[in-house]
TrEMBL record:
<protein>
    <submittedName>
        <fullName>Uncharacterized protein</fullName>
    </submittedName>
</protein>
Length: 433
């Protein structure tokens, strides 16, 4: 006759089984990591990805992380709890594309032609084939977008007075001179602006025939995106921390927001109809109100398409008919597509991490995009111009030049060795090391 198991014996068997299962899983993961490392030795990436891939391998050592099987670079997990059980689920994946876009890239340094101050007074805009930048003591520098050569004839027409800020609204150049607003007329003269300006001293984020959009950012305390109905002169607002790009597709507005606080965060929301957002009815413009007494107000948002942590997204725009995201992850800034929680890296950009506080990306037409980069205090330190499938980073001081991120005992590699030549007229070219 068999004696029944005692309770302590049953408990011991259960514990032994759990330990054995964990050891089995541990061994499985270790074997998987070894197999991935062996497989990755024979993976042949696009040559443009090699410096980036080398950096990712160093990051694996730095973070003591097991390698993924290339072309997958990283998988982010989160834990789900169901009753007494918990398990991990993939949050998002980062992988390499089979082939890089091959965007020609270059950098230039343009100095203030009117004085010693480094950075512009307001964010640059594209106007009639020119990059217009307002420098101290209040004058415009005008550079052609195809060659970045100065157009001093246009500068003479614009600089008949000093300005403190400028915008491009309804394809019209608007400037703040003293306390008055002026618009540059088709006759080539500055005339007083006859209509109210919904923006404060802040850059435009987006504009179409009906809406004008901009944003505010209060750091970890949140931010907002504003849609101003130009026909009815009504403000609508939505929660967003902190908006940097808007793409319009099939009548809907897709708002990209990101914040560098802690390890970073980003989200992508879809707004089908701005009139369904919160309508502003205060005595001032919504961005001018006191936010310290406004945190509990119910403000609507759009439909969230993704919401990620430990990652920043600095820009979004359409290229080749699909959205592109400028992803900042672990010190590298990359160009990637996104679909179903998978980021596919399509360009390593400058193999550097772009530092920016509240960037703004504005689309001026198919394939013409300007990204304003600021280093705090809403001061533009550089900008990136994408035109005719060529990307140029315009630095307002040599300190802002992007250089390959170096780690450990990495060898020196210069992205400028393969980029298109920098302009030499009106611009100080970034020399190759």
């Amino acid at each position: 006759m068999h004696r029944p198991f005692r309770p302590f014996a049953i408990l011991a068997l259960l514990l032994a089984g759990m330990v054995g299962f964990n050891l089995y899983l541990s061994g499985t993961f270790e074997r998987s990591a070894v197999l991935n490392a062996l497989r990755n030795r024979y993976y042949i990436p696009d040559p443009e990805f090699k410096p980036l891939l080398r950096r990712f391998r160093q990051l694996e050592s730095l973070y003591n992380a097991d390698p993924e099987a290339l072309p997958i670079v990283y998988k982010d997990y989160f834990t789900l709890q169901e009753g007494s059980y918990s398990y991990q689920k993939i949050h998002y994946t980062i992988r390499l594309a089979p082939k890089a876009l091959g965007l020609p890239k270059s950098q230039v340094v343009l100095a203030n032609p009117f004085g010693p101050e480094r950075f512009p007074l307001s964010f640059s805009v594209l106007y009639q084939g020119h990059l217009l930048t307002l420098f101290r003591p209040g004058y415009f520098a005008c550079y052609t977008t195809d060659s970045l050569r100065r157009n001093q004839a246009l500068e003479r027409r614009l600089n008949t007075r000093r300005f403190r800020y400028h915008w491009l609204i309804n394809d019209q150049l608007i400037g703040l001179s003293g306390t008055r607003y002026f618009v540059f007329s088709p006759t080539g003269r500055w005339e007083p602006l006859r209509q109210p300006l919904p923006l404060s001293r802040q850059p435009k984020l987006f504009e179409d025939k009906r809406y004008l959009a901009w944003m505010t950012c209060n750091g970890e305390w949140g931010g907002e995106v504003y849609f101003y109905d130009k026909q009815r002169r009504i403000y609508y607002l939505a929660r967003a921390t902190c908006p940097n790009s808007i793409i319009k597709h099939n009548g809907s507005y897709f708002v990209l927001s990101s914040l560098g606080h802690m390890l970073g965060s980003c989200d992508w929301q879809q707004i089908d109809d701005p009139t369904r957002l919160t309508r502003w009815q205060g005595p001032t413009r919504p961005q001018d109100r006191d936010f310290t007494n406004d945190r509990e107000n119910a403000i609507r948002s759009g439909k969230t398409l993704f919401d990620y942590q430990q990652m920043e997204m600095l820009s979004a725009f359409v290229l080749n008919g699909e959205p592109m995201f400028m992803v900042n992850w672990r010190g590298s800034t990359l160009l990637a597509t996104w679909q179903n929680d998978v980021f596919t890296i399509v360009d390593p950009l400058f193999n550097d991490g772009l530092y920016t506080h509240t960037p703004v990306t504005t689309t001026y037409g198919p394939g013409r995009v300007l990204m304003n980069i600021n280093a705090g205090d809403n001061v533009e330190s550089a900008c990136i111009l994408l035109a005719d499938r060529q990307l140029v980073k315009i630095n307002w001081h040599p300190d802002q030049v992007s250089e390959p991120t170096m780690m450990l005992n990495d060898t020196v590699w210069s992205p400028l060795e393969t980029y298109a030549p920098a302009v030499t007229d009106s611009a100080e070219a970034v020399s190759e090391p």
